[in-house]
User: What shape does this take?
Amino acid sequence: MLLDFATLSSLERYKLFIGLVFPRPIALISTRSENGVNNCAPFSFFNVLSEDPPVVIVSFGPRGDGTPKHTIKNILRTGEFVVNLVDEAIANGMHISADEIAESESEFDTAGFTPAPCVEVKHPRIAEAPASFECRTLKHIELVPGRDFVFGEVRRLHVRDGLIDPQTKRVSDAYRPVGRLYANRYCTTRQRFSLPGRLPD
Ligand SMILES: Cc1cc2nc3c(=O)[nH]c(=O)nc-3n(C[C@H](O)[C@H](O)[C@H](O)COP(=O)(O)O)c2cc1C
Assistant: This one.
């Protein structure tokens, strides 16, 4: 089968992207609204792009009603955000936090997350997350109306105690991240394997 992307609907392109390009890492982004409501939501059009400078990228589409997502509004207003990573322990809360609730309500409450302070950014991080990156917006690109790309520079990393070797900075196998597949489907990273040689541990 050969598909011409120009003739596909955006929903068809979305289904093909998320059905073929997986597992995708999940950025559970936490921000605070201008009215002081703690917000969080998952984003899997997300990745790290470089370590020098330390850069993450996230892609935002509109909410179901066509309005901007609360997360991108809060990022554009403040120039800051927090990327919390998702492991098995917080997967259920992450999934609940994707519900498109009113701006006056907090996904921290619906998902059962605890806000914890950051050092450099004014938004809260999620205390239960295995790791949280405090980010400053490096660049914002409105690619077309309703599709925003945000590049963030990572300023600080909070990590759950015991997950990182303080000397080598290697991350322990006890870290159990969850990946996004498609629709309501996710995967764990329990079936790991090694190939011979080449890269040092
Ligand atoms: C695992 C997962 C990944 C998602 N990835 C994205 C994404 O990359 N971009 C996006 O715009 N929405 C994505 N969504 C949808 C948002 O999380 C959802 O619209 C959320 O309600 C936005 O909340 P906000 O309005 O508080 O920002 C994803 C949802 C789930 C469950």
About this structure: Residues 10-20 form the longest helix (11 residues). The two ends are 41 Å apart (CA to CA). The pocket of flavin mononucleotide is lined by residues 26, 39, 41-46, 59-61, 63, 69-71, 95, 98, 100, 180 (CB under 6 Å).
